[in-house]
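ok trying this again, last paste got cut off
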Amino acid sequence: MILIYPPSAKLSEPPPGIARLCGAFRYHGLFVRGIDMNREGFDFLYSKEVLPRDRWGSRALHKKDMNLGLVCGNKGYESLDRYKNAVRDITKILSLASENTGSLVSLANFKHDYLSPVKTKDLATAAEHPQDNIYFAYFERRFKALAKESPGIDTVGFSLNFLNQALTTFAMIGHLRAMYPSTRIIVGGGLVTSWMRQPGWKNPFPSHVDLMVQGEGEGTLLGLYGIDRPEKHYMPDYSDFTGFSYLSPGFVLPYSASSGCYWRKCTFCPEMAEKNPYGPVPVSKVMTHLRQLSETLNPVMIHLVDNAVS
């Protein structure tokens, strides 16, 4: 199985959900590969040849390598003003790379001129016309390479957590369905869970997506490969993501010590509508995981991604 984290989301750390699934699969001796296409997609856009248009664009292009080095290492975090300038210049290059594509990409957002990620019809349109997506040249080439590298792969899963990722996720799905029709396509993640927990929900994309998964996906995905009684609380495996320089002063280790929320009263939070039960990982297991991961990965920071910490 190949697990993909699609653009566009923040670039400060690797995807924790896919790392957890990789840990579960490898624990049982199953082949899995995690791919951060969000980080690779950024490199694709940032390396495009663009015209400066104005003095700011000229400055941003002149300093593009230096600015990227600042936010991917310690130097950029020694001065708030220097950091802000680097981020503005990086964002400027992304906006230049987005010109005449029908999209606007930044470090924290993805907007399309006429397609909306909250409309089922527009997501289907993105799947039916993947060549219109700003990342198409990148993911077309990437999927061809993956087909050669791993010809026996029968399943591709997407971790769709944010609205910013939705249109590109469905463009990738549409391309996969057209070029590799025998591939089983699975979609899960936070945004998909929110969709599926709505009353009366049915899969509106049956011709594009074979299976949609809500909540923690370990049990469902392992079940596809004959693991009927999976363990609980697998240690995540970040080995597929250590080759990147994320936009952080070093490796940031995201870790989930629980699922759901025991409070579930914040009106802005999907936990209230989804009614997810609170499921903490035993403290002893959390400490064992964090010690082992820290020894292996030497993170500059541990990021607890829990919605609530007891």
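PB: full thing came through this time. Residues 194 and 276 are 10 Å apart (CA to CA).
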